[in-house]
Amino acid sequence: MKTWKSSWWVFPLYLALAIALTYPLILQVATAVPNDLGDPLLNTWILWWNAQAVPYTSAWWNAPAFYPIQGALAFSEHLLGLSVISTPVQWLGGGPQLGYNLAFLLTFPLSALAAYLLGLELTGRRDAAFVTGLLFGFAPYRIAHFPHIQDLSSYWMPVALLGLHRYVRDKRASSLAVFGAGWILQALCDGYYMLFFSVLLVLWLLWFVRPFAAPRTFAAIMTAWVVAALPMMPILWRYRTVHSSFGFVRGFDEIRYYSADLAALLNAAGSLALWGWLHVYQRAEGELFPGLTIVVLLVAGAVVVGRGAVVQSRTLRVARGLLAVLAIATGLAALSTLVIGPWRIGPLSVSDPIKPLTEAIAFALALVFLSPPVVSAYHARSVLGFYAVAVFVMWLFSLGPGPTVLGHPLMYRGPYALLMYLPGFDALRAPARFAMVMTLCLAVVGGMLFDRLASRFRLNRAIFASIVALSVMAETWMKAMPLEPAPGPWKADTCVPAGQVVMDFPLGDPGRDLTVMYRSMFHDHPVVNGYSGYFPPHYAALRHGLSLFEHDLLTRLARLGVGSVVVDTSADPGGVWKRYVSSHPGAQEVCSEEGRTVYQLHADRPESAGGTGGTPLPILSVHANENPDSARLVLDGDLRSRWESGPQKDTTRVEIDLGSVRQLRGIVLSLGPFADDFPRALAIDASEDGQTWTEVWRGTGGTLAFVGAFQAPRELPLTFEVAETRARFMRLRLLSNDPVYYWSIAELKVLGR
Hints:
By secondary structure, this protein is α+β, with helices and mostly antiparallel strands. The protein has 27 helices and 19 strands. It folds into three domains: 12-308 and 380-476, no CATH class; 501-601; 615-752, Galactose-binding domain-like (Jelly Rolls), CATH 2.60.120. The termini are far apart.
């Protein structure tokens, strides 16, 4: 076994390759933003905040964006594991961008080095280990994730696996410590890998350390894992608390959208010099092309390495035969619907091909996992066999809960749907990122096959390794390193009092909001603007209400503590935002500099909870002229169900019958999780007989949705107060159109006495 000390040259070489790959980033390391001005700006801001506040404290969680919301850091990744690199850089005087860029640049050599050490442990050969490191640290898949530094920071996964393999070999506590440290540090770098990599670890334990065969070893590893996980518990609890309070969820369709397609393996990042043209089917998070080099190694290894003894028990033969019959039968059932259409024979019926096709694929997958080579590898505890099987399993999970092929449904539910029953998996929207775990397994398989091919054919190992290295780097080489100049700082010291909250106009465009957050690092004022993985429920209403120039919204913001409004004149060519703010009675211009005009915003009184003072009245029925069958859902007590209008049209009507004449004081429409779907403009009429109507309320919904989001973010109630009126019927009329957003009502209450 080669010692690690003899591999001192590896990291400098990997670092040199990373610098060459990302050139000229090294020349602009303090001023340029890799890839684009999207997620990299958000992640730079998060890493900056990690250097300002003490982790785990309330102040740390209450990051200064989306004011006045609490817990804003929990809207996205906390990146605490990356702060091990970026925070010291900032404390030593380097700027936030320098800290981010160094952490970004190091993801390549650190991932390669960690994979090298794992490859060295498994093969005992430095050349094979070097190939393993290249295949992982410089895989083409990484280029597709340039905006996501947390996904590139995958270097602790090989370290954790290294600790496990060493512990099985030497039973030393130090090896368990390596495993535990690798797992917790990886979890602190990326929440996705905390869960996705844990799936691989469970498979590893079932393959190499079976609980009943080696209970002591299994117990020791599980104990180390639990101890390592303890520092994550307060973080996970805070995420759960914040997300629950705001009602944050990832819908099934959203998770499926960010899953990989079956054709994703033939979709490469467009910036690749050699393979940038390869786009069989393009989709978000769908650039899983692994490179031709690893494919050649896999094919060559499968052809010439061969296999050992094959397990062929009678029970397995019977099971495989039964699975084959079931796979063929369900496959034919799926095919039959395409030929003769839906059919029924007694209790058996097939209406569409997807469900029987799902069953056929499930039986076929079971047949694969019970095939003689896999069963034999499992019994032999084959390292190569495990990582080969893991490649396939991780790829299956990357397809998400509803696998597709070229965008068309392939299975009703995929293997990932099973993971969604476990805590946390239904909160992650991009199953496609299982591909990084798959890439690690591919790298291990590639390194081991390199070793076996070189030994079998007695190749000159140095030349063979050089050819593989050149091939890997050629496939990962880019046409040009994507770089953007970092937004220039804006120092508000001369215009904005210390500690005062700032709102920057125009608000709501993701690019501008990210720039506002980024610039807040230099003036150190909390900002109303924000961008993250989740948006607080009030933000859509705030964005829309401001676009309608609602003065009441500015008044309410001032009452909530917003002291300064900044109008970016370069983004306001017609001067509409400046006229809006300057015409507000509580706004006073204080200065203009650097293309920005700053106003002080004065509050007339503190914000109150409000309320109509009425009690909920019984409702006999609700009718709607759009989607009438779902109108009953507004009274079912379930915020997850709703009536919706489709894109908002000014002909939409909803009528409410109370059953008898009552004294009315208002109406409450709860949006629940459908925060964007408030009525853009609405009128409310009341009637005693259903014939003669009196308008009792007219206005826009943005300010009410904004207020409701603060009062009860999970319910998000829109409270329409009316002068006390006698009526049996109420009619809600949309007054404007919105071609994109629906009008939704999750729950409805009429208040009065």
